[in-house]
Amino acid sequence: MSLVDIIIFFLVIWWPIFFVLLPIGYEPITKENAKTEFVRSAPKSPRILKKILLASTISFVITTSMCVLEYYEVFSLKEIFL
Prior knowledge:
The protein is an all-alpha fold. It is built from three helices and no strands. 4% of the residues are buried.
């Protein structure tokens, strides 16, 4: 895989993983703990940085394993799609 292929593969894997992780730990704002006027569906503590780092770590592991599999010619996406 070239560097461009690796970056594209990483980003394509990263986005779905990030969106899957977004609702984890969701706690809506209630009237008791609302300090300002926010939309009630907004999370009380979104923890975005934690979710970005977790999505990046999972995507890095998947991308690395895919590169290793392709390097040792065990599995190749190019053979499937080309």
